[in-house]
Each structure stands twice: as C-alpha cells, then as structure tokens.
Design a protein that fits this description.
heterodimer, A: 448 residues, alpha/beta, Rossmann fold, GMP Synthetase, Chain A, domain 3, 7-stranded mixed β-sheet, 6-stranded antiparallel β-sheet, 13 helices, globular, B: 76 residues, mainly alpha, 47% helix
C-alpha cells in the first residue's frame, strides 16, 4: 500500500486511536485499512468521488486512508444536518455516499449520475492521485467546494518525523475542517496516539484529557474561553497538558492572559491556516504574545494593504463551483485576514468580511472585543456591525455579564464609560444586547 | 546535570549528536513537539515543574540553556 500507510507497520503495538472507550493499535489500523480497501476496490472505481459522511472514528480514519489508497476523491462530511449535507453535495459531482449505520454496518449509496467531470477532477485522474474536497463559506452563503491533491498533501507530511516516544493528542477540530485533517495527518505521520471525542462540550473534553493523559490539545479561542467559564479546569486533573494550540479565529490578548494564568505549565502555540492553503507551522513571539512568525519552508507570505497573502505548496488546485477570484495569476491567495506587522512578526487583527464601516471609518470587531473583555464582569462579548441610516453601519455588541441583576441600560452606561478612554468614539458600541449564553458555531468559532 | 540532559536528549532523538556545539532549534534537532516531550522527561527526572512562559525555543537551544532553565525551576 502507499508508503504512508506501510510505515504504520513500524509502530505496530503503539496505540493509534482511542474512540468510544476502545483502543486500537497501529497494527489494528493497518489491518482495518487493508480490509476496507479490499471492500472498496471491488465496489468503487479509482478516481470516483465519494462522500464520507462521518465525523472522526476508527472506521472513518481507516476508510479515509483506504479511499486514498483507492485513489478516490474524498468529501469528508462531519455534519449530520440533512440540509447542510445536501447543500454541500449539490455542489460536487459525487458518485457515491458512504455512511455508517448505528450498528456499525457500512452502506454505500450511489448518487444521481452526473456526466460532467470537472477539469480539476480530470487532472487528478491523469496524475493518478487521490483528492480531497473541503468546503468554506462563500460570500453569497453557498458553500465553496475546493479540491486538494491529497496524494501531494500527504507527501508534505511525509517529511515530518516519527516519534520514538509516544504522545497523546486530542483530535478536537472536525474531520471536514482543514485543521482537523492537519492534526490527523500530523498524528499519523508521527505515529502517536489520537483520542477522538464523541462530543465537544468543555466538561467532556476535560474528562478525556484527564482519563487519557492528553498532552496536546488543538482548539479555538472560543472553545478555550468556554473551558474557562465552565470551571472544567478546576473539576478535572488537566496536568498532563503540555501544549494547547489555537487557531481558526484571532485570540484576544486578555483571554490569552487568563489562559496562561489557568494553565501555568502549558505552552500556547498559535496555528494559522486556511482551507485553501493548508495549515502553516508557526512560532509565537512568546507564550503570552499573539504575534507569530511562519516557520514553514513551504510557505511564502506578503502583506498587501494590511491584508495577508499566502502562497504554499499545500494549496488547493481550485474550486469546483466558484471562480478563483482570490487567487492572483501567479498563485498568491488573498486570505481576507488583516494583520499587524511588528519586528518581523504578524498579529491577526481580524477578517475583512467582519469589518464594520462607520461613515468611512473602519472598525475591526476584534479590537473592540479585546477592550470590552477587560471590563469587569464581562465574561464574553461579540461585536458586530448593524445598519445605520446616517453612517451606513454602527458598532453593536452582545455581552455576557457575570452580574445577572444589571439591566441592559446599566451595562450600556458602563460600556460607554469604560470605552471612552480606550477607543475612538466611532468604535464605541451604540447598542448593547445582553446574552445569557456565549454564542458560537458548531465549530467553536464566534458567531457574529 | 549536563551529562544527564544529554542522555535524555539522546533517548528522545537518537539520530542526532547533542554533544555538538550547535543551536538545536535552528539546526532542526528539536521541534515544538520534541520540546513538549522533553519538558515532560526533564520534569520527571528532576522532579520540578517548568512554567509555560519558560517553554520557549531559546531555553532549549543548547544543553547549557536547558540546565539553566532547570536550575531556575528549582532543580538541584
């Protein structure tokens, strides 16, 4: 089989996967991939596009690699919401759908036959390579389907080293997310143990960290804030944690300080990546800084009008259902992330699409959030723009406040007083809404 | 102490020679995940806890730097 899979034989008895209380070694994984490949190759032709409708599990990982071996184009779909599944699959000429029933039986369903075969998929077939389709939200709301050459992507990881001594990672980010795929491929390359959660609530994740002595937790700032607010760090023994990586959205400095205080023996490492370019190794300026440097020989970057542009060896071949407007002719990807540069380091300031335009003055929500998070009693805040007949947009915010007895008007007065000496007047929220719970997406990103 | 640290490094990454006078991080002998494992091994050997704020590449660039870090963390 592919050398990436053959190498699992070198780590035979080491535990590869912990899932639903069961443990599986690299030997088990190898044998399962072989079995799944023989099952697949008799039913699904090479080059066929197959939707893998599962979140992380031992079966899902084995099938993913078996499909890679079978040179399929894999569409991992972790959502279970039918409308979301159909919305994604309607954008791709998918030939088969693979699902797993509650009892564990695999079902292979044929999709409606489509005769079109996009150029990108033809290229993969010509190369004899497997493919990977990921989705990102388009500006119109329609998911954009992007194609990676999976065989080339795996080659990027093959240069990384196996670990003589084991480590335990918790695979928090989802199967159909570039961050989740990155953690999976990194872990399999290093032959270390992966703990797969069935759910992602903070208390449950903390219980897994305690039970399996997890050393490395990849996550997002939103999740880490929830972890702090839930009190799980006090209820469970998280002393095995040595590294927490965070990405997918900017990290407020005040939250990083709180995390450092809660986890004084953990190294915090910021990750950066996009679905289009892959995940890039970074070096943080320090454990308490949100400034980073790219530490990856396969990545080039530049900053153009404050926006970060990237060019990597792991970037997509293109989109199946959208124009590659954000790519320049010479292959640079305009990320849409605004950055601050200082002493050769970068700080992610926020997304172009989230920017609020107040009468021509630009406001990044993250800047206002960073200030409000320092206000006494504020547990979380989301800043967003709302329409304003005079200025076009105005700054608004939703606040989760510790003191349930305070009225919205009292909190609004506090917000204005606190921000007056810290922010320009056009950045101060004109509307304050109280929220009872922190609002976040299923992927633990702030919901704006 | 430095001899013991070298033994631990050799156990972690037997393919490299940690007696060489090089920057272990710059030369690629140790990466972020190596540092995670190394911290756990050093903490166990010397019965200390190293602060997260001290887990930065420069403190793991040489055996001398690691010895300094361990002493700072209370190792004897």
């Amino acid at each position: 089989m592919h050398p990436f899979i053959e190498k699992f034989q070198g780590a035979q008895q080491r535990i590869a996967v912990v899932n639903r209380g069961a443990t599986y070694t690299y030997q088990d994984l190898y044998q399962e991939i072989e079995k799944q490949y023989h099952w697949l190759s008799g039913r699904v032709p090479e080059g066929a596009v197959v939707a893998l409708c599962m979140d992380y599990s031992f079966s899902a990982i084995s099938l993913f690699l078996a499909m890679m071996e079978n040179k399929n184009v894999i569409i991992p779909i972790a959502t279970t919401i039918p409308e979301e599944i159909e919305s994604r699959l309607s954008e791709v000429p998918c030939a088969y759908r693979l699902i797993q029933e509650p009892g564990g039986t695999l079902r292979l369903l044929s999709e409606t036959e489509r005769h079109d075969s996009p150029v990108l998929l033809q290229k993969l077939q010509e190369r004899g390579h497997a493919g990977l389709v990921l989705f990102s939200s388009g500006s119109t709301g329609k998911p954009k389907a992007m194609v990676h050459d999976l065989t080339q992507l795996i080659a990027h990881y093959e240069g990384k080293r196996e670990r003589k001594r084991n480590m335990t990672f918790l695979i928090f980010l989802m199967f159909d997310h570039i961050g989740g795929i990155n953690t999976l491929l990194n872990s399999l390359t290093m032959h270390i143990t992966m703990v797969l959660p069935e759910r992602r609530e903070p208390e449950y994740i903390a219980s897994l960290v305690e039970r399996y002595h997890v050393a490395v937790l990849p996550s997002s700032p939103t999740f880490l804030n929830l972890l702090l607010l839930s009190g799980a760090a006090e209820k469970y023994d998280l002393s095995s944690l040595r590294m927490i990586t965070y990405g997918t959205e900017p990290m407020p400095s005040s939250l990083l300080m709180k995390l450092k205080a809660a986890f004084p023996h953990v190294r915090f490492l910021q990750t950066f990546g996009t679905s289009e370019t892959g995940i890039i190794s970074t070096v943080s300026k320090s454990s308490t800084s949100t400034f980073l440097k790219f530490d990856d020989p396969d990545t080039e970057y530049r900053v153009v009008d404050g926006e970060l542009w990237l060019r990597t060896k792991t970037q997509v071949m293109g989109y199946l259902n959208a124009k590659a407007e954000r790519f320049t002719e010479d292959g640079w990807f305009r990320t849409g992330d605004f950055v601050e540069e200082k002493d050769g380091f970068l700080r992610i300031v926020g997304r172009n699409s989230d920017m609020i335009n107040v009468g021509g003055e630009k406001v990044m929500p993250e800047e206002v959030e960073a200030v409000l998070l320092q206000m006494p009693g504020v547990e979380d805040v989301t800043v967003y723009g709302e329409s304003n007949p005079i200025t076009g947009q105005a700054v608004a915010c939703k606040i989760k406040h510790r003191d349930a007895a305070m009225t919205p008007l009292e909190i609004k007065k506090e917000v204005r007083k606190f921000c007056k000496t810290r922010l320009a007047s056009y950045k101060i929220p004109v509307r304050v809404v109280l929220m009872e719970q922190v609002e976040y997406t299923k992927r633990f990103k702030k919901k704006r | 102490m430095e001899q013991k640290i070298r033994e631990i490094l050799a156990d972690l990454r037997p393919e490299f020679d940690f007696t060489e006078d090089v920057d272990f991080i710059e030369e690629g002998y140790l990466d972020s995940f190596d540092i995670v494992q190394l911290v756990a091994m050093l903490e166990k050997e010397y019965e200390v806890k190293i602060k997260g704020i001290d887990i930065v590449p420069e403190n793991f660039s040489s055996v001398a730097a690691m010895a300094e870090l361990l002493k700072k963390s209370g190792a004897k």
